[in-house]
Amino acid sequence: MSAEILPSWSDGATRSKIVGFLEQVDEIPPHERVAVFDNDGTILCEKPGYAQLEFMQSELRRRLEDDPSLGERSEFRAVIDRDRDALVALGLPRVAIALVELLAGIEPEEFDDRVRSFIAAARHPDRGVPYRQMRYQPMLELIAALRAKGFDVYIVTGGGTEFVRAISHDFYGVMPEGVIGSQIDYDVDHHDGALRLLRTNRLVGDPNEGAAKPQNIQRILGRRPIFAAGNSAGDAEMLDYARAAGGPSVCLLVDHDDADREYAYASQAATFDSGGSILDTAARSGWTVVSMKNDWSTVFAPS
Amino acid sequence: MSAEILPSWSDGATRSKIVGFLEQVDEIPPHERVAVFDNDGTILCEKPGYAQLEFMQSELRRRLEDDPSLGERSEFRAVIDRDRDALVALGLPRVAIALVELLAGIEPEEFDDRVRSFIAAARHPDRGVPYRQMRYQPMLELIAALRAKGFDVYIVTGGGTEFVRAISHDFYGVMPEGVIGSQIDYDVDHHDGALRLLRTNRLVGDPNEGAAKPQNIQRILGRRPIFAAGNSAGDAEMLDYARAAGGPSVCLLVDHDDADREYAYASQAATFDSGGSILDTAARSGWTVVSMKNDWSTVFAPS
Q1: In terms of CA atoms, which chain B residue is nearest residue A163?
Q2: Do A188 and B214 touch (CB under 8 A)?
């Protein structure tokens, strides 16, 4: 088995850990075979900026053509100018809500159409390829190997649920109900026996990061994962939830240590753990660190 | 086809409407084949009281054996005495939260175990049979017919998500993620790389009734149903959401008009529509009324 699956994973302790888990999975009841993957930075490149932020910027540019006065708003000005100091001063949540407001009042189907149009045309700022080619090939192989073993695969993302749903089937073979993310509230427009949902700029609950990830997994999925993959402090609680399930489990932490082929950057460990790097935390928590540099022979999906 | 499926449905306009819809479904893209069913009163008998309320009462009795002082609390006293006047005076939401509090602090797996134990032993107060035999046989046949046509079937209930999940696979073949209900919030207990979720007595958002049903369908499922079945004013928005999907759709309203074989009672139409009964509303809204008395040759599942 190990020769045929996971061809983009280099031999070593990480690949052996995964293959060993897959080989013992037949003993686990089928309904317990649940795997969860973070999206940005875990199965899709998140640098130099989230794909969702690029989409929001493209929406903003489109709206500015019709209404240049929008450019006077400080949040939008900072986004257009890619002014990091201004963005930090305003705070990401405030900027994000301002951008979300641009898309308030439309139906989810219309939002979905806009994301699909954006993704079909967009190119990655640094590499000039479609975002589909910014998927990590080894993680696609891992998703396929888990599915071949009867796993249900969910994407548990801090990004917007509807944004990720618009790409999840094409990118990962995941249906809309397989995406658990940050949720926008809907207004209900109801008359004459017809009902429409309209997006608002309000979040339902907290953004889907940190403790919200296991909470939303239970609320929405109701089955506990035994395989979890993430890359940042926002994934820590989800990894620990999977690890404490009781039986065999794998918790992967993708380490972005490959400046040549992708980007090299440290996860924001300090926000999760009081001391040391997230790699120290991983060692203490029993997570398996995936070195992009050493564990992956190929990084990006060819198409 | 019509002779073999839906054997417990009597010939007539209602059965013809459903069979006609099933015959044209092949032209609908597979991912649009989504059906939603309310639980209490739509696929399971809800009289003389909700199964979930019976469960809560049994939990209360169990706890009273250990701690008789609980009986001094007015909400619990009213439940134990089945004192309708006191229950009305206190208000159902206050009583419900008091009962939910009895189960705060336990993990979802433990809650699931308790519901399963209750359901395995419980008997319906009036009929003396297991709750499984209080499922409506025609609706089980309908669920099977929809699945045979490639539908994904969801239960969208005002009841607690976790309560219905504990019975949904055994009763309806629906996995936990196929249940969308009222959601209890979880506290997170996180230390030493292990994480547990613990039930609280707090609801997340509104109870899953009325407008919350289509909102939660979009948040959790992300696909719009084209088949919906309910029995009360709390299902109206869900039915209208399905009906306004654009293509062929069926919206069923179960009318409890069979005092001999089940119970005869009017849905609380007044809470939804300003004039007339919910049957008038159904006619205006383009819903199909299912007369339990006339449309069903058998009411309950044999086992």
Answers
A1: B222
A2: yes
Q: At B88, list the tokens.
A: 């009305």
- Residues near A2 by beta carbon (within 8 Å), at least 6 away in sequence: A15, A19
For residue A303, pLDDT beyond 70: yes
Would you say residue B270 has pLDDT above 70?
A: no
A82 in Cβ contact with A60 (< 8 Å): no
Structure ipTM: 0.94
CB contact under 8 A, A190 and B240: yes
**Four-point Cα dihedral B222, B225, B231, B234, nearest 10:** 30
Q: What is the Cα–Cα distance from B106 to A110, expressed in whole angstroms? A: 41
Q: Which residues contact B281 (CB under 8 A, 6 or more apart)?
A: B236, B269, B272, B273, B287
Using a CB-CB cut-off of 8 Å, the residues of chain B touching A195 are 214, 237, 240-241, 243-244
Question: Residue A179 and residue B285: Cβ atoms within 8 Å?
Answer: no
pLDDT, one tens digit per residue, over A90-99 is: 988 888 889 9
pTM of the shown model: 0.95
Domains identified in chain A and CATH numbers: 13-47+131-183+205-295 (3.40.50.1000), 51-103 (no CATH)
CA A191 to centroid of chain Cα atoms: 37
From the list A195, A222, A240, the residue facing B193 with the nearest CB is A240
